[in-house]
Amino acid sequence: MSLAVLLNDYTLQNVVMGALLLGAISGVLGSFAVLRKQSLLGDALSHAALPGVCLGFIIAGSREMGSIMAGALGSGAGAALMVLLLTRYSRLKTDAALGIVLSTSFALGVVLLTFIQSMNNASQGGLDSFLFGQAAATLRSDLVVMAAVTALALTLVALLWKEFKLVCFDPGFARALGMPVLLLEVILTVMIALAVVVGLQMVGVVLMAAMVIAPAVAARQWSPRLEVMVPLSAAFGMAAGVCGALVSTLGRGLATGPLIIISVSVFVIASLMLAPRRGLLWEAVSRLRRRLRHQQLLTTLHRLALAHGDSHFRSEQGLLDGYHGTHTRSAMKRLAQRGLVARHERYWMLTDAGHEEAANILARMEGRVT
C-alpha cells in the first residue's frame, strides 16, 4: 500500500487522530498516577467505566458517543471517589480499596451488559467492543468529543501545575501551606477517569489501564524531573498510538487497540534497558566499570607493596588519584567495606584478604595473556 493511499484513508485518519489524543492525555495524566504510586488506579477506573457505558446506552437508547462517554466518566469518577473515601476513612490500604472497587464495578458492568443483550434493541450490536476497543469504528464526531475532553484535561493540568506537582511529591508540605490537598487529589483522580473515557473507543476497558501507566513508566526511566517526564510520557503515548494504528492498517485483520498497547510496551522495555543512569544496560556497564576500577586499585596497591617489600605499605590518597587520573576515594571506601583495604588517616593499605584478591586478579590476567 502506497503512502498516498495511506494518508487518504478515512479510517486511518480517524484512528491516528484518536490515537494521538489518547496518547497525549494518558501520557500526561498517567505521570501523576505513577508518581503518586497509584498505578493500579487506571486499572480500577477503566473497569469501573463499563457500567457507565451500559447506563449511557440504556439512557440514550443507542450507541451515542456523548452519552456513553458521559456515563463512563460518571461511573469512573464515582469509583475514584469511592477509592479515596475507603483509603481515608477506613482501615483499608490502597491496593485493597482498588481491588474491591475494580471487581465490584466490573461485575456490575457485566450484569448491565447482559441486561442490555436481553432488551432486543437493534442498536446494541457491537456494544461489547468497548471491552477491547474498536478503533476502526471511530468517527469524526467521536474525535470532536475526544478532543474536547483532552483539551479540558490538559488545560486543568497547565492551570494547576504547581499544585499538582506539590501534591505528588510532598502532600504534607502542601497541606501545611493551606492547599486543599483532598480537593486536588479528587481533581487529579477524576482527570485520570477522563483519560480512561477518551480511550474507551480506541483500546477498550480491559486494556486502558496499560495505556494510562505504560507511557509514564517509560518516561520515568529517562528523567526524574516532572517538567521533562510529562511531555516525554505524552510523546511516548502518541508515538505508540500512531505505531499501533499503522501496523493494524498494514496488517489487515489486526486489532488496533492491542497493537497500541504492544507498541507502548516496547517503549517501556526499551526504556528499562537503555535509559541512562536507570536502564539495566547502563547499570550493567556501570557495575563492570566499578569492578574494573576496584581491580585496578587492588593490583596497584599490591604491586606497590611488593616493590617496597612491605605487605603493609601505605599509599597516600593523592598518589592513587594521580596514578589513576581520577578521584578514587569512593572506590576505596567500597573496597574498605568489603574488608580488602584499611584506612589510616589519608593513607590506604591492603589487608591480607586484599593481597589475596589482588594476587588472584594478577594470576588471571597473566593466564589470559599467555
From TrEMBL:
Superkingdom classification of source: Bacteria
Membrane topology, as annotated: Multi-pass membrane protein
Database matches in Pfam families: ABC-3
Principal subcellular localisation of the protein: membrane
Hydrolase found in the keyword field: no
InterPro entries: ABC_BtuC-like (IPR037294), ABC_TroCD (IPR001626)
Parts of the chain that traverse the membrane: 15-35, 44-62, 68-86, 98-119, 139-161, 173-196, 202-219, 226-247, 253-275
Gene3D superfamilies: ABC transporter involved in vitamin B12 uptake, BtuC (1.10.3470.10)
Location(s) in or outside the cell: Cell membrane
Sorted UniProt keywords: Cell membrane, Membrane, Transmembrane, Transmembrane helix, Transport
PANTHER family found in the cross-reference section: ABC-TRANSPORTER METAL-BINDING PROTEIN, METAL TRANSPORT SYSTEM MEMBRANE PROTEIN CT_069-RELATED
Protein family (similarity comment): Belongs to the ABC-3 integral membrane protein family.
Protein name in the entry: Metal ABC transporter permease
